[in-house]
From TrEMBL:
It holds the Pfam family HD. This is HD domain-containing protein. The keyword Transmembrane applies. The chain crosses the membrane at residues 12-33, 45-61, 68-87, 107-126, 133-153, 165-186, 198-218, 224-242. Residues 266-395 form the HD/PDEase domain. It comes from Branchiibius hedensis. Keywords: Membrane, Transmembrane, Transmembrane helix. The keyword Methyltransferase does not apply. The lineage of its organism: Bacteria, Bacillati, Actinomycetota, Actinomycetes, Micrococcales.
């Protein structure tokens, strides 16, 4: 599984590098065959955009949940450049001083490539962000797609509002293509998760970049090169907001880690038990198509699934809650959910903990709404409890799970667990 994921990631990166190299080579050949016709004003326009693209390379940001790294400012400016260069008139603004550069997309893409390369050198020299070449390759390819889209649509005799819609559609075209590529590259059982993560996280940011690109294009006719930094400033603020959210997430992770170790330090659990359950839950959650955000909540809940044991007068032998009476299991789950709720801002985690002891037949027979995350925790915790720290007990642990199949445990979750294990037990 991990080898497959790594190989797929390498293939995607190599594909990006090859495609970006092809774009650069084509742009160089295009410019070399059309060296005449670029005025001083044209060069100033291209140089200014290259500068803003380079400076935007210092503002990379990792999107929360999905873990995708983007450069929103560089992306917006790169998408705006084809609009400014290839659009002879911005609707009713046809008398504005917009410099049209000839020779098609060649100078545009070469400018974007030089700006991205300069930004990478600047980022490495300043040391502010880590240089991520796949991100820069993706921006260059996006600019190429947008440029081709602009060339393919009519640009004369349209009103301003029509120009805006056409520009927005062309700026969004690369994002739609990337979504299709992601869905095609994903495993069939992971396509839903990829689509959910993209819609919840990447689409809003991509829409902001596309909208900013259109605004930069219209603003350039009136403000010149100052339009790019002025219009892109909200994207800079968005970056700081995302970083603040990431710091809050880090604080939450520290809180979860501290609480998770509490049961082990106090002797209620074997060392590494919670971590092993969390590892299994994440694998099963991915197999069942949970989104990146849902996986984070599931993993946190799995780490804290035994925190309610601190309310017991005396520990359960080896911390195996599966050996406790059903009423005691529910009491432990409720106590754990109460502890988590008192920390604040983790209601979704507390909900999973509250229902983790509810047997599966309660949903089938009585219509109880048991969250999928709770059912995953119940199965994975039972499996690890039955292992008792001995990987050689895998067959026995699976047999114990099958004894409760359909009554205590969700069959779908058990199937996903066994598929992910592949006959092997994850080692802590």
């Amino acid at each position: 599984m991990r080898a497959f994921v790594r190989n797929r990631e390498y293939a995607v990166r190599i594909g990006l590098l090859v495609a970006a190299a092809a774009v650069v080579l084509w742009s160089i050949i295009s410019v070399a065959h059309n060296t005449a016709g670029l005025s001083t004003a044209d060069l100033e326009l291209l140089g200014g955009f290259a500068l803003w693209i380079a400076l935007g390379g210092l503002l990379d940001v990792r999107l929360p949940g999905a873990g995708v790294v983007i450069a929103p400012v560089s992306l917006a400016v790169s998408l705006a450049l084809p609009m400014v260069v290839l659009w002879p008139s911005l609707g009713s603004l046809q008398h504005a001083t917009v410099h049209r550069v000839g020779h098609g997309n060649g100078p545009i893409l070469l400018t974007v490539a030089l700006g991205l390369a300069a930004g990478a050198v600047l980022a490495r020299w300043v040391g502010v962000v880590r240089v991520r070449w796949p991100v820069r390759c993706a921006i260059l390819i996006s600019a190429a797609i947008a440029g081709l889209a602009f060339d393919a649509v009519p640009s004369r005799g349209v009103y301003t509002w029509q120009s805006m819609l056409i520009m927005l559609a062309c700026a969004a075209a690369p994002g739609l293509l990337w979504l299709i590529v992601l869905l095609l590259a994903a495993r069939p059982d992971k396509a839903g998760m990829v689509l959910t993560d993209t819609v919840l996280v990447q689409v809003p940011v991509g829409a902001a970049c596309a909208g900013s690109a259109v605004a930069i294009a219209f603003g350039t006719s009136a403000l010149g090169l100052l339009a790019a930094p002025l219009v892109a400033f909200p994207l800079v603020l968005m970056r700081f907001a995302i970083h603040q959210q990431e710091r809050q997430r880090a604080t939450r992770r520290q809180t979860v880690a501290a609480l998770a170790r509490l049961t082990e330090v106090a002797g209620y659990n074997r060392a590494g038990h919670s971590r092993q359950v969390a590892q299994l839950c994440r694998l099963v959650g991915m197999r069942l198509g949970l989104s990146a955000r849902q996986l984070i909540v599931l993993e946190d809940a799995a780490l804290l699934h035994d925190i309610g044991q601190v309310s017991l007068d005396r520990p359960i032998p080896d911390g195996a809650t599966t050996e406790a009476a059903p009423l005691d299991q529910r009491s432990i789950a409720a106590a754990g959910a109460g502890i988590v709720r008192r920390t604040g801002r983790m209601e979704s985690v507390a909900t999973l903990l509250d229902e983790q002891a509810t047997p599966y037949h309660m949903e089938v027979i009585e219509g109880a709404q048991i969250p999928l995350g709770s059912r995953i925790i119940k199965v994975c915790n039972a499996y690890v409890d039955h292992l008792a720290g001995e990987p050689g007990r895998h067959a026995l642990a699976v047999e114990r799970l099958y004894l409760g199949l359909g009554y205590e445990y969700d069959p779908q979750v058990i199937d996903a667990l066994l598929t992910e294990l592949g006959g092997e037990v994850p080692q802590h």
